[in-house]
Amino acid sequence: MRVQLFSCCALLLFSALIISVSAVGGLFKTYIPSLKSNVDSDKVLSVGATDFPFPQDLRYPRQVHLSVGEYNGDMVATWTTFQNTKGVVQYNLQGTSLWKDANATVTLFTDGGTEKRQLFIHRATMTNLKPAKFYNYRVGNEDAGWSAIFSYRAPITGPDWSPVVAIYGDLGNVNGRSIGRLQTEAEMRSIDAVFHVGESPVL
User: Fold this and answer.
1) 104: which strand partners?
2) pTM
3) Residue 57 vs residues 47, 54, 97, 107, 145: alpha-carbon distances, Å
């Protein structure tokens, strides 16, 4: 199994993570969603001194990402909003017209810093996925709006598979040098999964 290291701080956890990869074997394969978005760049939400390309609606989904589900054939979509709202993930098998819905659970997160900023974390599980098949998905709801449509490859099952894993540590919100490399590797589908062992910026 080839392992690509994107941060020196990830090296400290290398041995433990190798054990984790060996334990799950061929249960998963996932990719970072493309960063392309259909958001109007003229309508942005200002956070501090930085402008992010999101609509002003605080219910709009942000930080959309995937993780491995509890069972074979499951993938979990996670995203955040600045206001409590219903969350849904819609997904379909590429090449088909049938879309499925899965409702999300919502958890309130309060920042431990001085601002005590509150975020709402949404998690929804896509189930009964066909191994190694490609799916499209988007998150949000009809009232607050939908994210861009992303795609991923469903988890691979069986023992005859060795994943290629990217490991990185503190991504940072300034001079994040891992971002471009991770995105390139993901879009080229040359990695199977990402282990995040440090912090990432919260939008």
Assistant:
1) none
2) 0.68
3) 13, 8, 29, 19, 9
